[in-house]
Amino acid sequence: MKLRAVLGNDRRWISHSPAVGYRMEVGDDEIDAALFEQLMGEGRRQLALGHASTSVRTLRSALALWRGSEALADVRSVIELEAEATRLGELRLQAAELAIEASLWDGAAYEVLPELLGLVIVHPLRERLVTLLLPALAAAGRRVEAADAYLRTRERFIDQIGIEPSAELCRIHQGVLRGDGWPDLLRLRATAPDRPGAAAPTAYAASLSFASCPRAAQPEHPGCAALARKGPRDRNPGALLAVVLRRRAAGRSATQSLFRIDRSRRNSM
């Protein structure tokens, strides 16, 4: 009776059968949750194709469908809907991350920084947000704050859960220290250092960041870290470290690489 009172004479969605009873039939284009997921998928594909401006508009349209802070807030007491509400909440956060990333590619760092900083505060352990925050701060001319944000994130991760930041975030931090432009920092989010087209860091830049990187991202042999710390005082430290990294990528240990480098230098003297 309550449903009839709400719908009045507009009952085009309601059907009735003796076996099932009353049933509401609504298309996906009339359900906000389904439309949100459809728009989010479109925005993701547009961003992957490089259409940043279009992606921003699509993703913001998806996010505009939301009301309130939680999905299904008025029916979360139904245990069967708790999982669905959690899933939708995660998708909402992913859509916000995609919209921010698209805005950065569209050159709108200043516009999205307040939103991004707020999300980092609300979700302090969500590393993906920090991988967006560092390039955004760099694009806004706040490189020192970007470096500080990494250090505070690393300290939080170690203090609260006892792990180092990921190699991806470490690479972005290295890029900040090297003075990379914000587009290069954004590309580091998806480019591993051993993939074609990714430049090896110079020894001097590595010396600034090895101490704050995960062990998995550091050279295995302590002599390699010592070599990196020599910085610009060595005759060609960047070339030496690049050789070490290349040899390690080819399957040789750091110790073998350093031995070969040292022997070749002695022979050339």
Give a description of the structure.
This protein has 269 residues and is mainly α. The protein folds into three domains: 81 residues, no CATH class; 90 residues, Tetratricopeptide repeat domain (Serine Threonine Protein Phosphatase 5, Tetratricopeptide repeat); 51 residues. Helices cover 63% and strands 3% of the residues. The chain has 13 helices and two strands, in the order αββαααααααααααα. Strands 1-2 form a two-stranded antiparallel sheet. β1 and β2 form a beta hairpin. α3 runs antiparallel to α4 and α4 packs parallel to α6. The longest helix is centred in the middle third of the chain and has 27 residues. It is elongated and about 70 Å long. The C terminus is likely disordered.
Order of SSEs:
HEEHHHHHHHHHHHH
Query: Strand pairing plus helix content: what structural class?
Result: mainly alpha
Annotation field: number of helices: 13
Please name the CATH architecture of the largest domain.
Alpha Horseshoe
Query: What is the CATH superfamily classification of the largest domain?
Result: Tetratricopeptide repeat domain
Query: Would you give the CATH topology of the largest domain?
Result: Serine Threonine Protein Phosphatase 5, Tetratricopeptide repeat
> How many structurally independent domains?
3
Beta strand count: 2
Give the strand order, joined by hyphens, for the main sheet.
1-2
